[in-house]
Amino acid sequence: MANRRKRPNPWSKINGTGMRRIVILAGIFGVLTFVILFCKLWQLQVTQHDWLENKAITQQTREVTSTAHRGTIYDANGDILAISAAVQNVILSPRDLLDTVKDEVKTKDEFGNPRSKTAIEAEKESKLQSTYDLIADNLSSILGIDRTEIMTRLQKTKSAYEVLAKKVEEDVSDQVRAFIEENKLERAVYLTDDSKRYYPYSTMASQVIGFVNSSNTGAYGLESLYNLDLAGTNGKIITNKNASGKEMPSSYSSYIDSINGYNVHTTIDSTIQMYAEKTLEEGIAKFDVINGGFCLVMDPDTGAVLGMASSPDYDLNDPIAIQDSVLQSTLNKIRNTSTEEEYEAALNAAQLKQWNNKTLNTTYEPGSTFKPIVVAAGLEEGTITDNSTFVCTGKVHIGDWDIRCSARSGHGTQTLRRAVMNSCNPALIKIGQSLGEDKFREYWENFGFTSTTGIELPGEQKSVFWTADKFGETELATASFGQRFTTTPIQLIRALSAVINGGHLMEPYVVQSVTDDDGNVVSYHEPKEIRQVISQETSDMVRSYMESVVNDVGGTGKNAKVAGYRIGGKTGSSQTLDSADHIIVSFLGFAPADDPEVIVLLGYDWPQPSAPGQNTTKDGTYISGGNMAAPMAGELIANILDYLGYQKSGNTVNENGVTIPNVVGQTPDEARAALNALGLNVRTSGEGSVVTDQMPTAGSTVPKGSSTVLYLGEEKPKETVAMPDLSGMTYDEAKKALENVGLYLNATGSGTSGTVFEQLVLPGTPVELGATVEVKFAENTEPDNGLSSANGDWAEDPEQKDQTQPQTGN
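Below the sequence we write its predicted structure tokens.
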């Protein structure tokens, strides 16, 4: 057997050094490989763990949000102001639709032979297009969406979530659901739960309630400030899906329940709110007011806001639409004369203006409604007393100014009570001087004007007053009668509540409580006193002065008087810096005067004068708080007290008339004697020994000297007459005009003095012959702050008017 040669061993030539190198290199490469693998594992398991986990969950599951029920907002009596109702969103899944069509196309023919790829693709495209047409045709009709828009969405075949319509109501969602079931499109079109906000009262308290945006998030008002309480927590429905994105309903699913939002209970009384808004609306129309107005109704003892109205307002169910006719008219002019960009800017400005809450988002010069605060400070400090007297010559010289009074010839010597009744500027300046600059600023702070009130509404502004170094002799004088500084209506009504409630400065509030879904109280607002500013004695004194403003002869607020109610108040007419014609007329009133339960602040911003530079309207009415705001506020206060169930006090019978007794069944002589004794004239109709009917009917109030008709043996005529137009007439003229058509006058308001302020029966309305119609009269008094000259200024030197403009600060 031949010898076999040994194969050489390649490692035999490697000496010890080479082997060590190999081992070292192998070790290095091994370590590097381990490090790389470790780093990659660290990245996957630690660094990117959460991201990869979320990506896997997203790929393997479908998550649908279950919207929480937003809490309800209620008024003080439990009436619903804002509520959410269940609605649904219509969702399209083009990807699932494509997969569904693919699954329906068979890959083999009826004999089990494979079909050609071309035939399969052709059938798939045909089915897909017919399904697209089916969906687009039907959903465009049901949802009111353009067909082209739906077709565009269907082409997005990689998308599984295309929102076709949001917040559709039950009648529409039922139609969509029926369409889905009928055509077996459950994977391609589906509905998700959502909620929609509804506001049953439309425009009522719109700036208070606010509204939500398309995402159900509060955007304004209470909806915004209490959004976290109202919103609740959304739930989820999670289901598995396979690699192609198809839902697998029989596999894993998880349900996370939504948590409904809390309910907000406000202090707003919807009836009082309606009265306030109606008063505001009627005054704006009656006095041709350019810039809207505000009206606040509050409980002076607690600070609870019962009504808060601001004009212009808006429809809560359509907050972007412009409701105010003045704003809409301006927008129409801009649309016709400006670019699209300019129109959009004007539209945005108009929307912000109607969303603005003038009671707290805007400051204004309060004018004479501020005067009771100055009087209260003087009485509390003892710089004046009830026995103090003041001499008014018609103007007072302060620095470089001659500041006038409304009485150009002066009020002469007057008591403190009469000075308040006259709203005398020189007297108030004297009181301000007696306090001095430092003490005046101290009471300015004590009455709460250096900070916001803390009311639970967004955007409250602070008052604008002079800084200490800018507050001199002239500024003190003008501030004493409420001019050249600005404050908000909510700050002013809080301070004046302290004046009349015993001196207690309360925190205003509009939310009484927050409750959960089961009615459990989450939070409750107790009345909060900030401080006592003045004594009970001082408060009682100033309150009696304010009652005299309305009820005593010569008071500037006499037009607010209502028979049967003790109403106190203060008028205001403030001139703004932007225009001599821009006057804000206002009235602060409260009742009952001896123990106030309600306080009202009503203001109309810029009643239009008959011509530039004039201080009367086109019907000759002086532009003043006493002529405009006072009668409207007096009627509002009476309506509120009636609603709250307060009994009228004192003489509830109109002092200008007599009440007709029932004389039916009496003899003509007995009836005549009874009516003559009341100062009434009598005539008879027909013949008979007994009165069978009478005109006017028993219980009617008519003026003394009116003619009554007694029917003897015959019926009273049933005919009607047209109500005459009594605008601008005096008492005697209105009485005669009514008697000429067979009607009787029931005069309210200022009665036999003044002119017709309002007739409750509109001109031309058919009225039964012999009926008594109520007509309200008001005295046409000049403004209470000296705005009675042709140029409307209360200062002799209008060129220096900006000297008294306040500097920002407290």
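The first strand starts at residue 61 and ends at 66.
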